[in-house]
Write a structure and sequence with these properties.
456 residues, alpha+beta, 5-stranded antiparallel β-sheet, elongated, PGBD, PiggyBac_TE-derived, PiggyBac transposable element-derived protein domain-containing protein
């Protein structure tokens, strides 16, 4: 914003300097944010599905079934929207009750009924292995490094942007923790972050921690308040805090200067000298902050410009969202790096749901964050699985009555009724439509014929 570049057809770049003069910038008055409280408070599950909505569930269901078919054309695996929602619910509850291993949730001594009663361990692991978010056949030729997870980012950002915008927002980096090596250079190391290894995203948040927008480092997009009057504080980006060696700033001697296109540059000595850029806040009115002085060994009052005070007051939105995400972070250990971003999308949706719930509900009847998440998992509208019994042995008269037309039909892979009686464990997807038992029927074995001809 301080230097303008013109690129000519012959690839010659000219730098047009901005004129700076010593002057302050007039503060811009912002409208007060008034949140309209609803007459009826929704259930936690309804808040969550405002963002992680049916469109996302349908997309995941379709892409998972597509991936399973692409991986093994003969597979009988299929899933549905209820099962995907159950899978997400289990992941959320695993963030509340943390155990060392996924198997512990189904183990006899450490069994967690809220998880084990919703889905079997075998089915959960199978879903985790095949869950997918984009069509692999379209990845060739694309330059999008986040292709595997891109549709979910698009859906979730659309849902977040539907929420009413607050006047004061902040933009900062967000680290999604990931230490695996399968992501290549998508994984970054930032020494100053609590999660030093992971994926770096940029997010725009309100003061209370609601994430309005997210984008990755490879995405070309704009981050703003979408035409509404507002103030956005930024860290290490185009405005807000700036590097002191930035072009046309490193030569500035005055403490406060303003460009001819309305950009204020301020240098202020805190623990170190910091440089700020602003387009709507000036130096006045000055305020006082308390800082520790190494010379006097005491805490001394220091004058602070208004633009820096505003930055310190309004940059906490991203940090608050990070704190809420880390309270009950969804666990997902996998070599597939995009699954970590999938669980982060679940966590951010859950955090945003909690923030909006806090806005809507009065303090006297407000749930705690842990109660909110726990009640979300218990109120999820998913059908409980019906545990199957052992397959019955059909009546011998029915079994050997050839007039009943014992035709083979395709079904799920289960233990062959004939082979298992011989002591072998073989599986087949061929079912007798009359006897309702699974029987092998291939080039090596024809248990279907033998089962209906001989008495075991």
């Amino acid at each position: 914003m301080c230097i303008f570049f013109l690129q000519l057809p012959n690839n010659i770049i000219f730098v047009l300097p901005t004129t700076w003069h010593k002057a302050d910038l007039k503060n811009t008055a912002l409208p007060e944010y008034q949140h309209s409280t609803p007459d009826c408070i929704d259930l936690p599950f309804q808040y969550f599905t405002r963002y992680f909505d049916d469109q996302i569930i349908r997309h995941i269901t379709y892409q998972t079934n597509l991936y399973a078919a692409q991986k093994d054309i003969n597979t009988t695996f299929t899933t549905n929207e209820n099962e995907i929602l159950t899978f997400v619910t289990i992941l959320i509850y695993m963030g509340i009750v943390e155990l060392p291993s996924v198997d512990d949730y189904w183990a006899r001594k450490t069994n967690v009924p809220q998880v084990a009663n919703l889905m079997s361990s075998k089915r959960f692991k199978l879903l985790k292995r095949v869950i997918h978010f984009n069509n692999n056949t379209r990845i060739y030729g694309t330059s999008d490094r986040f292709f595997k997870i891109r549709p979910l980012f698009s859906f979730i950002n659309t849902a977040f942007r539907r929420e009413s915008q607050t006047p004061k927002q902040s933009v900062d980096e967000v680290m999604v923790a990931y230490k695996g090596k399968k992501a290549g250079n998508l994984r970054q190391y930032i020494k100053s972050k609590p999660d030093k290894w992971g994926f770096k995203l940029f997010a725009r948040a309100s003061e209370d921690g609601f994430i309005h927008d997210m984008c990755d480092t490879s995405e070309t997009t704009t981050v703003g308040t979408q035409g509404q009057p507002g103030r956005t504080e930024l860290e290490s980006l185009h405005s807000g805090q700036s590097r002191r060696w930035r072009k046309r700033l490193c030569l500035m001697v005055p403490v406060t200067v303003t460009s001819d296109d309305g950009i204020l540059a301020v240098r202020w000595k805190d623990n170190k000298t910091v440089t700020f850029l602003s387009t709507d806040m000036g130096v006045a009115p000055m305020s006082t902050v308390i800082r520790y002085c190494s010379e006097t060994k005491k805490r001394e009052p220091v004058s602070c410009p208004a633009v820096i005070r505003s930055y310190n007051d309004n940059m906490r939105g991203i940090d608050k969202s990070d704190m809420l995400v880390h309270l009950y972070r969804t666990p997902m250990k996998s070599k597939r790096w995009y699954l970590r971003l999938f669980t982060y999308i679940i966590d951010v949706s859950l955090t945003n749901a909690w923030v909006v719930y806090k806005r809507d509900s009065p303090p006297s009847s407000r749930r705690s964050s842990s109660s909110f998440v726990e009640s979300l998992t218990s109120s999820t509208d998913v059908p409980k699985p019906i545990r199957g019994h052992r397959s019955h042995t059909p009546n011998l008269a029915v079994r050997f009555d050839m007039s009943l037309f014992h035709a083979p039909v395709h079904g799920e892979h289960q233990t062959c009724k004939h082979c298992s009686r011989k002591g072998n464990i073989m599986r087949s997807n061929v079912v007798c439509r009359v006897c309702k038992v699974h029987l092998c029927m291939n080039s090596e074995r024809n248990c279907f014929v033998k089962y209906h001809e001989e008495v075991a």
